[in-house]
Design brief:
Length: about 200
């Protein structure tokens, strides 16, 4: 998203998190900008029964948790390192200075936030659908486009686990497994060595 050397020029500090480590907690005040150098981060919530709902999964060169920075709100979800992860972090004031001095990056930010808002709108409509297969295909197709999944010989490798697909779509993991098998039979997906391809 933003060049690492530019973030460092504005005071960015590199931080490492181990798999499973909490980066920030839901309802804490948003005071910093986080961008992934390497690794994977998920933003999640838990319902009253303790079921996890994943708000989003973020990868190398992506930022996460920045919308509340601009409106002085608390984080709407937790951020957790899925794998060992290296981040670069700057304060809100440092980020605002950077954006004021670099209009091209400000425009990228607006585009990025707009894409996320669009995704949330699309997925909110999909989650209200009763058809699990349709929900899963929409999630996969959107993720291929927005997360730049690489095309391999078998097709686009979908890096989500069955559990992550369940948590992103509000489905049970058993439902996801059945739906993926059904989509494979219909030719919409391929399963090779337990990996899902589109």
């Amino acid at each position: 998203m933003i060049a690492i050397d530019l973030l460092e020029e504005y005071g960015g500090i590199k931080k490492n998190y181990k798999s499973g480590e909490l980066i920030f907690e839901e309802n804490s005040l948003a005071l910093q900008y986080f961008q992934i150098i390497s690794g994977e981060v998920k933003m999640n919530n838990y319902n009253e029964e303790g079921k996890e709902f994943i708000q989003g999964i973020f990868y190398e060169n992506q930022c996460f948790g920045e919308p509340p920075l601009f409106i002085e709100q608390v984080y709407p979800a937790n951020a957790v390192a899925v794998t060992n992860t290296e981040l670069i972090v700057i304060t809100k004031n440092q980020l605002l200075d950077l954006l004021q001095n670099h209009s091209d990056i400000s425009l990228k930010f607006i585009k990025n936030l707009s894409q996320r808002l669009y995704y949330k709108s699309v997925m909110a409509a999909e989650i209200s659908s009763q058809d699990p297969e349709h929900r899963i295909l929409r999630l996969i197709d959107y993720s291929i486009k927005q997360l730049n999944f690489k095309k391999e010989t078998a097709g686009f490798h979908i890096h989500f686990t069955r559990q992550q697909i369940a948590d992103l779509t509000g489905l049970r993991v058993e439902t996801v497994i059945r739906a993926i098998k059904s989509l494979e039979k219909k030719g919409d997906l391929k399963i090779i060595n337990r990996k899902v391809y589109r």
